[in-house]
Write a structure and sequence with these properties.
By secondary structure, the chain is an alpha+beta fold. The chain has three domains: 6-72, Uridine Diphospho-n-acetylenolpyruvylglucosamine Reductase, domain 2 (2-Layer Sandwich); 80-203, 2-Layer Sandwich (Uridine Diphospho-n-acetylenolpyruvylglucosamine Reductase, domain 3), CATH 3.30.465; 209-290, UDP-N-acetylenolpyruvoylglucosamine reductase, C-terminal domain (Uridine Diphospho-n-acetylenolpyruvylglucosamine Reductase, domain 1), CATH 3.90.78.10. It is 24% helix and 26% strand. It contains six helices and 15 strands. The chain has helices at 32-45, 99-108, 124-129, 191-203, 227-233, 262-280; strands at 6-10, 22-29, 49-52, 65-72, 80-85, 88-94, 111-112, 133-134, 137-138, 143-149, 155-159, 178-188, 240-241, 244-246, 254-256. The strands form four sheets. Strands 5, 6, 7, 10, 11 and 12 form a six-stranded antiparallel sheet that branches. A hairpin with a 2-residue loop joins strand 5 (80-85) and strand 6. It starts with 5 loop residues before the first strand and ends in a 10-residue tail after the last helix. Bound molecules: uridine-diphosphate-2(N-acetylglucosaminyl) butyric acid. The site of uridine-diphosphate-2(N-acetylglucosaminyl) butyric acid has 18 residues, from helix 5.
């Protein structure tokens, strides 16, 4: 199989913020077997290799990436039902499948559990690695198994007992074990109920910017608090550095107004963080991956 490689590729084309320097090369891959082949070859050759999904929760630095970047592209194979018992249905889905398509897929089958994820961009693999969530729920709560690809090109299978998920973190967050497929347990419900829950979760996102380039929430919510509320109270909305501006709609989003650099975004992050530290004595942690 031939993989179209692009050399000296600006990473700004490959993340939702639209920023970041040059990578040695990028290559789109969809299949598990091609992924394994490339990882094995690169570990033999000693190249640094990174994996990126839709790039919806990352900040690529202006200095670029000294290595190759695999772009995990939309895997065309749909989720499959592995088994079901009572109202529970276990499905298997590949890491490159877009999360929004998985939400649609499950809603169409009256399968409840993923409604909270409506509106979250990214791939299933990225969502599991970062334990994506909203409203106190996260995808890790549903995960029953994970298959990963290791540095040497072999696969590992993780059962529920091996998996510890925490708020926006998983055993795969470090990027060493790459998630290639995932098992999720959903529950069969009624069409009305699933759609009602979907509308409920969609309505909670109304205050978020939709038509600008962002990477979702920049900071994690501190225990018991809301980063967005604190940033807003600290007067961060509308603050800008270069082409980056704190959203006027939701203070935990930073928008690229067109020509922002990663450096602009990092400077703005520092300003916001120190404002919140001064006003609330809270040190906000990053939610995005740098
Ligand atoms: N608020 C303000 N001003 C703002 C932003 C928020 O007053 O500028 C207030 C809101 O009115 C609300 C409270 O702060 O009373 C909490 O805000 P919101 O409901 O927007 O929820 P959040 O805690 O800021 C979380 C997740 C989002 C997720 C939403 C909706 C984190 C860091 N954020 O936001 O996740 O979309 O709930 O379900 O956990 C992300 O992970 O990238 C992300 C955006």
């Amino acid at each position: 199989s031939r993989i179209p490689v692009r050399f000296q590729e600006p990473m700004r084309f490959w993340n939702t913020w639209g920023v970041g320097g040059i990578a040695k090369a990028v290559m789109p891959i969809t299949s598990e077997s091609a992924l394994a082949e490339v990882r094995r070859a690169s570990s033999d050759a000693g190249d640094r290799l990174f994996i990126l999904g839709e790039g919806s929760n990352v900040l690529v630095l202006d200095g670029g990436i000294d290595g190759w970047v695999i772009l995990l592209r939309d895997d065309p194979s749909p989720p499959e039902i592995v088994r079901s018992w009572g109202n529970s249905v276990e499905i298997r889905v590949s890491a490159g499948y877009p999360l929004r398509r998985l939400v649609n897929w499950s809603v169409r089958r009256r399968l409840s559990g993923l409604e909270f994820a409506v509106g979250i961009p990214g791939t299933v693999g990225g969502a599991v690695a970062g334990n994506a969530g909203a409203q106190g729920r996260s995808i890790g709560d549903l995960v029953s198994f994970v298959r990963t690809l290791e540095v040497d090109g072999t696969f590992s299978d993780w059962g529920k007992g091996d998996l510890t998920f925490a708020y926006r973190s998983s055993p795969f967050a470090g990027g060493t074990s790459w998630v290639t497929s995932v098992g999720l347990v959903l529950s069969l419900s009624s069409d009305g109920l699933v759609r009602q829950r979907l509308r409920h979760f969609a309505s909670l996102r109304k205050g978020q910017p939709k038509n600008s380039r962002t990477a979702g929430c920049v900071f994690k919510n501190p225990p018991g608090g809301s980063a967005g509320l604190m940033l807003d109270s600290a007067g961060c909305k509308g603050l800008s550095v270069g082409g980056a501006m704190v959203s006027r709609e939701h203070a935990n989003f930073i928008e690229n107004l067109g020509d922002a650099t990663s450096d602009d975004i990092l400077k703005l992050i520092d300003i916001c963080r120190s404002r919140v530290r001064d006003q609330f004595g809270v040190n906000l942690e990053l939610e995005i991956k740098v």
